[in-house]
């Protein structure tokens, strides 16, 4: 029997296992460069940015291929996750915002 544990809280899951399957993929065509992208200024800018990044050892080129994730969740975490699938939404900060 396969044993599952919650990817969020680490608790073991008995029967009520929830899964979240997420695919993150580029919605644009990374191969499609416009003339604007090929302008010298732009390339210089990129070169400068890359030069700045050279000092960072763990710099990785951004991957454009789709990435798939699958998470196992216990019922408690699944409920929490459904409320904020992408983490805490910015709108929650607005509750205390206006104090005029
Ligand atoms: Zn959990």
From TrEMBL:
Origin superkingdom: Bacteria
Protein name: Uncharacterized protein
Lineage: Bacteria, Pseudomonadati, Planctomycetota, Planctomycetia, Planctomycetales
């Amino acid at each position: 029997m396969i044993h599952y544990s919650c990817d969020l809280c680490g608790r073991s899951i008995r029967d009520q296992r929830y899964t979240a399957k997420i695919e993150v993929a580029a919605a644009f065509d990374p191969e499609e460069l416009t003339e604007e992208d090929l302008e010298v200024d732009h390339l210089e800018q990129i070169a400068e940015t890359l030069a700045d990044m050279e000092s960072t050892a763990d710099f990785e080129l951004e991957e454009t291929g789709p990435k798939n994730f699958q998470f196992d969740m216990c019922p408690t975490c699944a409920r929490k996750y459904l409320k904020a699938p992408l983490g805490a939404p910015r709108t929650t900060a607005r509750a205390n915002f206006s104090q005029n």
